[in-house]
């Protein structure tokens, strides 16, 4: 780890910005290239404006560590996250702050500890086996929708013990609508209240009410029976107690459940979509992963224990997360003046960090645009600075489901790779487009042809 500077330095700000909008229009037009331009032209630290509001981009691993770990509670998520998420979802673990966030994280952490998530592995594999049985040899599928349906079904079972939950179902559609609204609103400079009679607002409010009502029904059903009869996360949250012996109230449980659902299916679905795309564009590495799966599993369904014998499959998933991190950028707002690597981040200033850029730094990832899972092999991975690879954040706000995702992704890759192969349909242009979404989805649907394996 490179030592941070203790001598105060002046933040270099962009000199050519729109006098009214700052860099907001360029950011909203093509944010990935905007982030890359900031780093390539100005280095690891550069200031900018979104409208009248100042921000500072930090791209060095040690700077990101300082913000997220050392000063984790000297920053918060910012007004936009608070306003938009709380209006739609409630004040769940993603948007809560300070002592309340610490209290919520402590009570919610046990279901996502490695020793507990092992029990979800069979569910992940079972749903993967089910979805591939629906595909006919030679059938053309939209891999992005297939992965969303799969991960949505898995998280629906894990969280709610619900057997049918996918993008096309009423509840799945409501989730999609609600989180699409959040993604669009986060790109706006001014956030108009959800209660205002504006286009789309009524549908979002209806979707939120539908989800809240269904969750209240699920909670009532569980309270009619002994809570220890079920092992889904909703039941675990109902049983959980704070240090003083009190339980979460119903509104808070609903807010946390909605937050977990959104985070629990979207990020993994996006990562898997990019993993299959990358594999179909790199046939030698696709063959290498299939060979590992065939040799280790020999026709058996994978288990959690089998992951230790599938290192290359895990490396493939990590490399997909590197090249196309679902959380491609995130921000924190300073609660007071904070010194980061000698640069004074003033109170209320936004600090921007972009894994999209950091994962493409050739100093840490040679030939960074190349799909090379081997860079996450045991010896080479040791050479990567700790905070240079940042798919799940870091510090006290690190993604609660990071262990869940790192189990689910490789298990789903192995299960499907054993049964089918995918062929990329030629003529498509697959471009990442984070506009109006919370994660790094492809701009368009991605078509693939299913080939059943003998």
UniProtKB/TrEMBL annotation:
Binding residues annotated for heme, in chain numbering: 399
Gene3D superfamilies: Cytochrome P450
SUPFAM superfamilies membership: Cytochrome P450 (SSF48264)
Short name of one Pfam family: p450
Keywords carried by this UniProt record: Heme, Iron, Metal-binding, Monooxygenase, Oxidoreductase
UniProt cofactor(s): heme
Protein name stated in the entry: Cytochrome P450
Organism the protein comes from: Thermosporothrix sp. COM3
């Amino acid at each position: 780890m490179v030592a941070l500077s203790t001598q105060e330095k002046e933040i270099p700000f962009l000199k050519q910005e729109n006098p009214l909008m700052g860099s907001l229009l360029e950011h909203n037009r093509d944010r990935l290239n905007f982030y890359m331009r900031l780093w390539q032209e100005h280095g690891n630290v550069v200031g900018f404006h979104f409208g009248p509001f100042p921000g500072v981009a930090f791209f060095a691993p040690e700077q990101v560590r300082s913000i997220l770990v050392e000063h984790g509670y000297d920053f918060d998520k910012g007004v936009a996250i608070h306003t938009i998420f709380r209006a739609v979802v409630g004040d769940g673990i993603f948007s809560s702050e300070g002592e309340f966030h610490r209290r919520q994280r402590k009570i919610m952490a046990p279901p996502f500890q490695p020793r507990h998530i092992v029990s979800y592995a069979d569910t992940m594999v079972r749903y993967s086996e089910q979805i591939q049985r629906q595909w006919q040899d030679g059938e053309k599928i939209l891999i992005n929708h297939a992965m969303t349906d799969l991960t949505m079904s898995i998280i629906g079972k894990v969280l709610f013990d619900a057997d049918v939950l996918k993008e096309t179902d009423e509840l799945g559609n409501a989730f999609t609508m609600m989180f699409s609204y959040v993604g669009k609103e986060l790109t706006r400079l001014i956030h108009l209240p959800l209660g205002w009679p504006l286009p789309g607002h009524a549908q979002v409010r209806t979707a939120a009410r539908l989800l809240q009502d269904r969750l209240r029904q699920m909670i009532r059903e569980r309270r009619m029976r002994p809570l220890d009869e079920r092992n889904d996360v909703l039941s675990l949250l109902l049983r959980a107690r704070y240090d003083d012996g009190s339980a979460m109230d119903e509104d808070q449980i609903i807010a946390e459940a909605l937050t977990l659902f959104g985070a629990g299916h979207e990020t993994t679905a996006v990562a898997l979509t990019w993993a299959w795309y990358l594999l179909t564009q790199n046939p030698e590495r696709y063959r290498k992963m299939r060979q590992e799966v065939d040799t280790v599993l020999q026709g058996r369904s994978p288990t959690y224990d089998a992951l230790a014998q599938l290192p290359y499959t895990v490396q493939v998933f990590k490399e997909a997360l590197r090249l196309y991190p679902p959380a491609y950028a995130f921000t924190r707002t300073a609660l007071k003046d904070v010194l980061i690597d000698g640069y004074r981040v003033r109170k209320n200033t936004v600090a921007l960090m972009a894994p999209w850029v950091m994962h493409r730094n050739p100093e840490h990832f040679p030939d960074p645009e190349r799909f090379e899972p081997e860079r996450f092999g045991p010896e080479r991975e040791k050479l990567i600075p700790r905070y240079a690879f940042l798919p799940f954040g870091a510090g006290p706000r690190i993604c609660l489901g990071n262990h869940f995702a790192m189990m689910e992704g490789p298990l789903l890759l192995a299960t499907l790779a054993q049964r089918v192969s995918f062929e990329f349909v030629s003529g498509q242009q697959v471009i990442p487009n984070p506009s109006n979404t919370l994660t790094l989805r492809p701009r368009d649907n991605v078509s693939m042809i299913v080939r059943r394996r003998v």
